Amino acid sequence: MLHMLICCTKTLIIKYCRCVIGILTYCTKCPNATTCHSFHTSSRSANKQDFYGVLGVSRTATQKDIKKAYYQLAKKYHPDTSPDDPDAKEKFAKLAEAYEVLSDEVKRKQYDTYGAAGFDPNRAGQNQQQYYRTGGTSIDPEELFRKIFGEFTGGMHFGNMHNMFEQRPEFVMELSFSEAAKGVSKELSVNIEDDCPRCEGKGSEPGTKVSQCSYCNGTGMETLNTGPFMMRSTCRRCGGKGSIIITACIMCRGSGQTKKRQTVTVPVPAGVENGQTVRMSVGSREILITFRVQRSPVFRRDGLNIHSDVFISIAQAILGGTATGQGLYETISMVIPPSCQPDQVIRLQGKGIRRMNSYSYGDHYVHIKIRVPKKLTRRQRSLLLTYAEEETDVQGTVTGVSPSAGESYTHTVQHYFSVVCRQTRRNT
């Protein structure tokens, strides 16, 4: 019995020592223990947390890439965007924590060196050492998103951010190739929801009062506790308005919005491409317009450059000259060099498509096609046969001029035409 008690005691002591060793790290070589960096244990999830993975960026990502990744993911997991996702609030808070560390060069360097275990935040400033903390962030996730949101939207007021999360109506506009390339103002009929004309979007009957929301005390924001995170979100009761409607508007029934059909003029910028989508404000709302560009029977587009074909005669191809063709903005004239080959390309600089929101233009590439006549006059045929007599680099034969023993090219040509004349007389 005593032997068993001793064995159990030894086992407990060994387990206790292992536990202590696993928790504490001793500095055995440092003469001054007070200046040593003390590392603290963290949860298993914190040790495995990857801030780069949270934002979906590589470890070599630039600050611009990190900010853009945070903004896109924060919009996706914002509590107002994903009200049906129970994990959205926690994901939103983790994004803020990851961005807070990686957007600060000093904290990012510490994180790259020591990982997500972090340092003791109470020791910040000692030995000129900067510390960050995991398992929580020192910035309100909602306030951080407000700040980044303002940067990406050019200072747009965050109070109207709920409009950004609403589904924008989408419309399709058909454009000809020329309209897309040169730009045009075109009318479009749309059905949209806009501010109610009776209550001006307030939702309450004109002349009546609204009461302050008791859930958020009129701030429009509520504080949520999501485990280790504390964050502020849009009030679920008043929808961020800070007030509660007592008497609803009889026209919109308290929604503040009414549907209406109207015709808007869309300023299509020069250079839009097929499938490109733009945003346009209609009243207090935004709509999305996707352009469908029809194919051109003349032009082919390659970015800002256009391609087209121009047909020239055999004489133009051999002797050179000038040719005209259809351009995007006007009739084009070009010089045909002597001995022009089929599919030879002539570049007309600056005659292509204008770059959107710029004054630069692409080029127009003209592909030369040689038109072979289907019918010839007698004189044309005679001249061609005479020309054929002088050719020395023919691979094979030319009908009507192939020489035979004891016959000259001239005799062959004369014989050919005599045969043609006899056949013509018989047919008549």
TrEMBL record:
It is a peripheral membrane protein. Residues 183-261 form the CR-type domain. The gene is DNAJA3. One of its GO terms (biological process) is apoptotic process. One of its GO terms (cellular component) is nucleus. This is DnaJ homolog subfamily A member 3, mitochondrial. It is found in: Cytoplasm, Cytosol; Mitochondrion matrix; Postsynaptic cell membrane. Keywords: Acetylation, Apoptosis, Cell membrane, Chaperone, Cytoplasm, Membrane, Metal-binding, Methylation, Mitochondrion, Phosphoprotein, Postsynaptic cell membrane, Repeat, Signal, Synapse, Transit peptide, Zinc, Zinc-finger.
